[in-house]
Specification:
Layout lengths: L1 H14 L1 E10 H11 L17 H15 L2 E10 L2 H9 L10 E2 H4 L6 E3 L10 E6 L4 H4 L4 H5 L2 E4 L4 H10 L3 E4 L3 H9 L6 E3 L8 E4 L2 E5 L3 E4 L4 E2 L1 E3 L5 H17 L2 H8 L11 E2 L10
Parallel strand pairs: 1-2, 6-7, 11-14
Antiparallel strand pairs: 3-12, 4-13, 5-8, 5-10, 5-11, 9-10
Helix pairs in contact: 3-10
């Protein structure tokens, strides 16, 4: 199947219209996408079980592959940005053609006059996050229940609607707003804040390391973010409508072939190892949108 998909992508990209565009991505995605690709074209990728693969890197690759399968090969000049909200504003006002990361549906619905909203890459109920802390935070590592989690401090960004809303419903002892993911990771790693949410990774133990941080998922517990994630394409950009049509066609093919679930599973985002972990905020306790 991997070879068949690669062959299809190569054939489609050879026949496809080429479209050059500038796309802004979050700075950490910019750096890790370069490390993950390691000189490869995004259309060549069929295995996401390697280093630097995570949810937003899978988004980054699958979106480009879907557009190519739909008949348009994006030749992308990447520029690092600051955060999702700024990218979404640029897409909605036509400065950017498309996002190479997904957005929550609850963020996109209010912008339907300015953007096209794709079919979901991550469907409602599929987004399960780990609760990450410092390896030295014994109180956080001992959490087994929602009551215990509520006694800790947490950090997120109000620009990340589903994450922020989830924490507001959990009501931790203190909730800190910081728009920068690397900054959040450093604060948690140093013990200044107890916990943050982040996706699971391909291998156990679920540990995230960077130049200035080390985080580990609290074993045995997980949190659900009850929204779906979609691609935003600008209605105001001159190429928006045809790129959206190509994207939708390609996503339908990837979904039918099981490639979307496979990619997120290989990257650890859909992780069988956490299937029996305690869900601290079951969907029955959430307000549906």
């Amino acid at each position: 199947m991997n070879k068949l998909l690669l062959l299809c992508l190569l054939v489609f990209s050879a026949q496809a219209e080429t479209l050059k565009t500038v796309i802004t991505v979050d700075r950490d995605v910019f750096e890790d996408s370069r490390r993950f690709l390691n000189g490869r074209d995004a259309l060549e990728i069929t295995d996401f079980s390697t280093e630097y693969a995570r949810r937003d890197i899978v988004d980054f690759v699958l979106i480009q592959q879907a557009v190519a399968l739909g008949g348009i090969k994006l030749v992308v000049k990447l520029e690092p940005g600051n955060y999702d909200a700024r990218n979404l504003r640029s897409i909605s006002n036509g400065l950017l053609l498309i996002g190479l990361d997904t957005f929550w549906l609850s963020e996109l619905e209010k912008l339907q006059q300015q953007i096209f909203i794709s079919d979901p890459l991550i469907r409602r109920g599929e987004f399960i996050a780990g609760v990450y802390t410092s390896p030295h935070n014994s109180q956080a590592l001992a959490v087994k229940s929602l009551t215990q989690l509520k006694k800790l401090s947490a950090i997120s960004s109000s620009h990340w609607h589903a994450d922020w809303t989830t924490w507001q419903r959990i009501t931790p002892e203190k909730l800190i707003d910081d728009p920068s993911w690397p900054s959040q990771a450093k604060l948690v790693s140093r013990g200044w804040v107890d916990v943050m949410l982040a996706p699971f990774l391909p291998t156990l133990p679920f540990t995230m390391r960077g130049p200035d941080y080390e985080l580990i998922a609290i074993p045995g517990v997980k949190v659900g973010l009850y929204d779906s994630r979609h691609v935003a394409v600008s209605r105001l950009h001159p190429d928006g409508e045809r790129v959206y049509a190509a994207l939708q066609s390609g996503l339908a093919q990837l979904r039918k072939e099981g490639r979307i679930v496979k990619a997120y599973t290989e990257a650890g985002f859909f992780h069988p190892a956490v299937a029996d972990w305690t869900l601290l905020n079951p969907i029955s306790s959430q307000t549906r949108h």
